[in-house]
Design goal:
Layout lengths: L1 E4 L2 E4 L4 E7 L10 E7 L5 E7 L7 E2 L5 E2 L1 E7 L1 H10 L3 H8 L7
Length: about 100
């Protein structure tokens, strides 16, 4: 997936994949959503995701209907950490941001 944001191209094929998450394996579920966290070659974190017509990726497709779609959203380093933490991706969090973590 590719998207140009502020004249910069973000491409999942060229970025480093960090982690993926999916809320349900049933792609026929209207609430189905999947997201992947990436880091661009220049160090910008972004989330590439897609989802069904009842997910946060829903978009209007006319006549009071919604369709599923996909998108790329830029995130800060802190937002990337929060995303990994919210999905309990401990290994990926330690690998990517180990120096940002402290013992509890």
């Amino acid at each position: 997936m590719k998207k140009v944001i502020d004249r910069k191209c973000y491409d999942t094929e060229k970025a480093r994949h960090i982690a993926s998450w999916c809320n349900t394996p049933d792609t026929g579920d209207f609430r189905h959503m999947e997201e992947s966290l990436y880091c661009s070659p220049k160090g910008q974190y972004f989330i590439a995701g897609s989802g069904g017509p009842m997910s946060s990726y829903a978009r209007s497709c006319g006549n009071n209907e919604t369709c599923g779609s996909s998108d790329i959203c830029l995130v800060t380093k802190d937002e990337a950490i929060d995303w990994l933490e919210s999905h309990n991706m401990v290994e990926e969090l330690e690998e990517e941001f180990g120096n940002e973590l402290q013992e509890g």
